Amino acid sequence: MCAVVLTVTGVLVAVLPEPEQEGHLLPGLARARGIDLGVAVAVDPLAHDRRYRGIVEDHYTSVTAENTMKWEHVQPERGEFDWSGPDAVVDFAAENGLNVRGHTMLWHNQQPDWLAGGDWDAESLSAVVHEHVTTVMERYRGRVSAWDVINEPLEDGGPDMRRNLWYEVLGPDYIAQTLYSAHAADPDAELYINEFGIETAGPKADALYALVSDLVERGVPLHGIGFQSHFVHGNVSEDLADQMRRYTDLGLEVAVTELDVRIPEPVTDEDLREQRGEYRDVLAACLEVEGCVNVTVWGVTDAHSWIPEWFPGTDAALPFDTAYRPKPALSGMVDALSRRGGRRPAPAGDPGRRTRPAR
Ligand code: G3I
């Protein structure tokens, strides 16, 4: 991993490889530690941009479709399914030996007009949800290992349940109903609730924990909790591992599903060095928790990130820059996976390879 060279003064020094070379170690390191290291991908650059594709192939072990598996893209008109985008992602993953996280079934955003503006009662909406979930999950059965079945069920600031279409028409049990449909469609898929703002202790984190505890108590087929982890530089959760452990103690698995660390502009070299430590610490938190199975970064490069559009004045959230060059954050992830330094070193006796909790 590092070379030793003899300098002109006769002193032996260790030289760390360039981030570019180091990054190629990531898939092997992640697999050796028993987790997936994933990335969210967009269909167009995956098809047309060789460098974009190369970054994914060389650095990650799983992919999540950033948009193309969402309802507005998959079923833009009622009963008309468009598989072109999802197929492209799943086929790319298969060709490259990558796992796939499915994203997402029920979400309040990116719904087609016919769905968002429909005149629904409980019976008709239940039927449409069941049909959508069943059709999509049966198509990718065996090829998508985990699904974000429920996305962001709590209000942005928490702790109340989000008053989305599903809640308004079906009531709070829409979550259990949909999980049962998903489980019937693919009994081997890991079914997730994916949420943001739960990475740090607080009312929203507690509200999700209460909701999940109830589902687990009732035996609803729920297998994992996704911690989206859209962080701001300087404010990355310090108790992520503790929050994750609450769920693994319930017998669930957990994952960091949408990691990015946005930096307020102007972005300095010092910010990027600090961001390196932040990426390292998030990886280390996952590695610390038996049952944390995946860390996924939310986009391939800063040129493809959702951040500048949604949070103007912040940028540089991902491990590759807009020119596709690796940033210090990439070697921060290598650090964590190879146990080099960090706020949270691997606990003594960590067996290296980790196992999923019993289902
Ligand atoms: O589909 C239109 C296309 O027709 C149009 O030509 C193009 C022009 O800008 O826009 C396209 O829509 C974009 C869409 O992604 C693509 O499906 C929107 O502008 C863009 O705002 C939208 O943003 C996505 C966002 O979800 C929507 O809410 C981001 O790319 C995506 O990263 C983001 O992902 C979400 C996760 O799914 C859930 N967690 C939060 C995360 C960030 O919001």
TrEMBL record:
Residue ranges occupied by any GH10 domain in the UniProt entry: 40-336
InterPro entries the record matches: GH, GH10, GH10_AS, GH10_dom
Principal EC category: hydrolase
Gene3D superfamilies (UniProt xref): Glycosidases
SUPFAM superfamilies in the cross-refs: (Trans)glycosidases (SSF51445)
Keywords: Carbohydrate metabolism, Glycosidase, Hydrolase, Polysaccharide degradation, Signal, Xylan degradation
Parts of the chain that traverse the membrane: none
Region: Disordered, residue numbers: 334-359
EC number assigned by the record: 3.2.1.8
Catalytic center residues: 258 (nucleophile)
Record field: catalytic activity: Endohydrolysis of (1->4)-beta-D-xylosidic linkages in xylans
Keyword Repressor recorded: no
Family to which this protein belongs: Belongs to the glycosyl hydrolase 10 (cellulase F) family.
Protein name: Beta-xylanase
Organism: Nocardiopsis changdeensis
